[in-house]
Specification:
With 287 residues, the chain is α+β, with helices and mostly antiparallel strands. It has one domain. Helix content is 30%, strand content 22%. The strands form 4 sheets. A 5-stranded mixed beta sheet has the order 3-2-1-10-5, with helices on both faces. Strands 4-9-8-7-6 form a 5-stranded mixed beta sheet. The longest helix is centred in the last third of the chain and has 19 residues.
Length: 287
């Protein structure tokens, strides 16, 4: 990997984790590092209106104009919510960020230490020529087990739509091309006459560019999910009433209290996966 190579960011609410992926010399994306999320607000499901405290779910593209090196939460980048599909659906809200500190009103707070590492990685990718990096935000890791457990949730159809993009990245290690039509996300399709202009209108004729291996994975997951349901896998409800926090930070909160956790957000010691050695030196210093 080079410091200027393109990046992809994935966020998982239920697990309270953020992943940074970076393109390697093979052209595929490899996991650089996984960060614990100190705080996100709301519950599982998309953000629909201003003031609902929901952290967004969906596919976003962050360009250089959405970076904020002077954020009141140290460093930040704006997800760009609402995107074109969300605007068409009437969703409202603004300034939904990935930022430092450990507080959230619809944002993903990584602590100052976490965002201090992430920010220069995405900034240098944009400086290196990537016009915008993709951020994929999911309610949970889209495994058959999680899909089965949440099968009766009112957001299940939306989550199934997100899973198509998730499966493409899992198989190909390439960010999917994201289009919007028919009131949903559409992935890796070439449309006759160009990209759809109205996200709510029926999708025009298109040629799918999704590899057969992706369809095979999706079908295998569907069969596994049905098997889990048939075996009596119990439904589960989230253990929080407003948002979530990675277990590493929850342990610190229980041990030291909220005030102590807030004071430590710039240098909190929590277990995270180590960054690739190829990028450790260029990006781990303070921006």
């Amino acid at each position: 990997m080079s410091p200027s190579a393109p990046v992809v960011v994935r966020i998982f609410k239920q697990e309270s984790e953020l992943e940074v992926w970076k393109q390697d010399r093979s052209g595929r994306f490899a996991l650089l590092k996984t960060y614990p999320i100190c705080r996100w607000s709301g519950k599982l499901g998309p953000k629909r209106k201003q003031g609902d405290r929901q952290a967004p779910e969906g596919f976003y593209h962050v360009n250089a104009g959405l970076l904020n090196p002077r954020s009141q939460y140290y460093l930040a980048f704006n997800l760009g919510f609402p995107n074109k599909l969300e605007r068409a659906l009437g969703y409202s809200g603004s300034a939904l960020m990935v930022h430092g500190a450990c507080s959230s009103s619809g944002c993903y707070a990584l602590t100052d230490e976490g965002v201090e590492e992430i920010y220069p990685v995405v900034r240098d990718a944009l400086k290196g020529g990537q016009s915008a990096f993709q951020v994929q935000v999911y309610p949970f890791r889209m495994t058959p087990e999680n899909m089965a457990r949440h099968r009766n949730d009112g957001n299940f159809a939306f989550w199934s739509n997100l899973k198509t993009g998730y499966d493409i990245f899992e198989v190909t290690r390439q960010p999917p091309k994201v289009s919007m039509c028919g009131g949903r996300y559409v992935f890796d399709k070439e449309f006759v006459g160009g990209e759809p202009k109205d996200p709510l209108a029926a999708c025009p004729p298109a040629v799918s560019k999704v590899p057969e291996a992706v369809a095979s994975k999706s079908e295998a997951d569907r069969v596994a999910m049905q098997s889990l349901i048939s075996s009596g896998l119990a439904l589960t409800a989230p253990s929080y009433s407003d948002g979530g926090m990675h277990p590493a930070f929850r342990r610190l909160l229980q041990r030291d209290g909220e005030d102590a956790l807030s004071r430590r957000t710039s240098r909190t010691s929590v277990p995270v996966s180590r960054p690739s050695a190829a990028l450790a030196d260029p990006h781990m210093a303070k921006d």
